[in-house]
Amino acid sequence: MATHDNSSSNALAELLDEQAHLSLDELARACCMQPNWVTERLAAGLLHGEHTGGGWYFSATTVVRARRLAHLEATFDADPQLAGLTADLIEEVALLRQRLRQLEALRGH
């Protein structure tokens, strides 16, 4: 489950400039979802964005998370909260693996 999702998410994150900000409609299109799907996840605290100038804007990291949420909800028929918890765990494991690789590189492995 996570291997395929992580590799495609990592590839997407590399393609997107972290400084780029997508609008709510652009984020919805990137996830193949409707804009109300995004606003529901914003209201639930599952996605985070910046509300400026009368609109929402999202970073590349949020695009990856939103795509992961959409995938988990669709593939496993997960409710949004469960998908959010699962996404949190996937992100935490990825961070821990990255830190482990950094430590191993420092030790010369």
TrEMBL record:
<dbReference type="Pfam" id="PF13591">
    <property type="entry name" value="MerR_2"/>
</dbReference>
<protein>
    <submittedName>
        <fullName>Chaperone modulatory protein CbpM</fullName>
    </submittedName>
</protein>
